[in-house]
Amino acid sequence: MSLSLRWKALAVALLVAAGANAFAQDAPVRIGYAIARTGPWATGAQVSQEPNYIMWADQVNAAGGLNVKGKKRKVELVGYDDRSETETVVRTYEKLMTSDKVDLILPPWGTGANFAVLPLITKHGYPMLAPTATGRKLLQLKSPYFFALLQQPDVMMDALAEYLAARSTKTVAFIHVDELFGLEQASALEASLKEKKIQIVAKKSYPMGVKDLQPVLNEMKSLNPDAFVSLSYPPDTFLVTGQSKAIAFNPKVFYAAVGTAFPVYRDKMGAMVEGVMGLGTWNPKSSPAAKAYFDAHVAKFKKEPDRWASAHAWAGLQILQQAVEKAGVDRKAVRDYIAANEFDTVIGKIRFKGGENISTPGVVSQWQSGEFEVVWPPQRSTSASLYPKPAFK
Q: Which of 132, 158, 201, 225 has its CA 20 to 30 A from that of 190?
């Protein structure tokens, strides 16, 4: 080949490379996830997570795209139904990372599913901000790529025990789902109550997918505890509430876990939810940012976000957006930025230590006249608590 032809070939190669680089810079940022659209997890996933993913991507794209170190790039979501199956969750995230080669990922729903994909995000180096996973076991695996947005079990159960102690509660009975979430919450609750010298008169576990808890509830009612706590997942939260009303089980404090913060819980159960307490963080009264988020969600989906993990999901997306703006889509750089900085979010400032959100305190919330009011701790409360809880209507 002549020197002239060689220079021409080199020029063509440089132009091709430049074009490829320009295409890479202008290509959408592909963000993948698996989420429950069907199966028992779908109740929670379709309230707390996927609607937020969709709304966030739409808002970002309407503003011209995701700011990637000064360059606007559209967001392309690559989402699959995990069918509420752990095996499908793992298989799908493996596909997203190895075959689809997405730039970034968003998490699945629930503690168990997040636990299942933890080895994958560590192996392939994908940072994950989890808004519906809570458990010390997750953090004890010490994955540098995992960030838990929800308050940990001991933090939430300490808040509940503090509230109970402030009301001079003497006795508590509780049940828990026999799954990682329920096991860790139960262990944390037991430790917190013992520290406050509150007597546990009964504790029972039950399996996932339980269809009848009335025999257990009758036993608990016979003990006449001051407080009853159900460390439950959404279907069980609905079940235990309805069956407690049916047997007129009316302790001074009635607390249920995942699902209590869902608007559909209020809407489906009606007046019987008045005074029911549960896991929460926020409501539209919490701040102007919370109100703006709430209004945007209602405007887009014609339904309300839940008052616990929905805002954590939105906060995770805000953190990811801020990290990409500074670090680009280099996943290690994004991970390092998240680990090292503090972020403004819809639920306040958040920073992480060892993957844990150490900024958001434990909170107790309660349904009052149609709103899930924050009633503890006092510095975050949006209303005084109803105590004792009104009898089920």
A: 132
Beta carbons of 108 and 82 less than 8 angstroms apart: yes
Cβ contact 77:31 at 8 Å: yes
CB within 8 A of 179, min separation 6: which ones?
111, 112, 208, 233
Beta-carbon neighbour count of residue 63 at 10 Å?
Answer: 10
Cross-strand partners of 80: 34
Domains and CATH numbers, the chain: 28-148+286-357 (3.40.50.2300), 153-281+365-380 (3.40.50.2300)
Tokens of 317: 């997306």
CA torsion 231→183→39→320, rounded to 10°? 90
* Cα–Cα distance for residue pair 293/352, rounded to 1 Å: 23
User: In 167-182, which positions are buried (b, 16+ CB within 10 angstroms) versus exposed (e)?
Assistant: bebebbbbbbbebbbb
Structure tokens at 4: 């002239």
In the structure encoding, which two tokens stand for residue 166, read together?
């402030």
- Per residue in 64-86, pLDDT (tens digit) is 999 999 999 999 999 999 999 99
User: pLDDT tens digits for 157-182?
Assistant: 999 999 999 999 999 999 999 998 99
Q: Are 301 and 55 in contact (CB under 8 A)?
A: yes
DSSP code at position 37: S
Q: How confident is the model at residue 12 (pLDDT cuts 50, 70, 90)?
A: very low
This prediction has a pTM of: 0.89
Q: Are 58 and 300 in contact (CB under 8 A)?
A: yes
For 46, phi then psi, to 5°, come to -85, -5
Q: Which residues have CB under 8 Å from 205's CB, separation 6+?
A: 175, 176, 177, 178, 182, 183, 186
Cα atoms in the 13 Å half-sphere on the side-chain side of 207: 4
Distance CA 329, CA 334 (A): 7
| 3 state SS of 185 | helix
Element (H, E) at 253: strand 253-256
